[in-house]
Write a structure and sequence with these properties.
It is built from three helices and eight strands, in the order αββαββαββββ. It has about 110 residues and is an alpha+beta fold.
């Protein structure tokens, strides 16, 4: 196994020269919706997001619901506002879909 393949796998690249998108550390944490807090709702929403070559979010969908509409809608809005380091393929920024888990736990 080549050193390039080992190092690439450590950094999330695959053998096709792809590097997946990453969210920026400056992205705001998800806000807990007030109605969900009042209802003591908690859960995990899995958002499927298209990250465009400029790092902006394109299309979004709920891949797995938390079971609470307020949490799912808040998760969509959170990811919609985030910015990402775009995916790269052979050194070029490209659009790529990724799963973004958003966890809501009561304090």
């Amino acid at each position: 196994e080549s050193l390039t393949r080992v190092v690439g796998s450590l950094y999330g690249a695959n053998t096709a020269g792809e590097v997946p998108p990453r969210h920026l550390p400056s992205n705001e944490a998800p806000r807990y919706p007030l109605q969900a807090l009042a209802a003591r709702a908690q859960g995990r929403t899995l958002v499927r997001a298209e990250i465009r070559p400029d790092g902006v979010v394109g299309q979004l969908l709920i891949k797995q619901s938390s079971g609470f509409q307020a949490l799912d809608l808040a998760a969509l809005e959170t990811v919609r506002m985030w910015r990402f380091v775009p995916a790269q393929r052979h050194g070029m920024a490209v659009a790529m879909w990724m799963d973004v888990p958003i966890e809501y736990k009561l304090p």
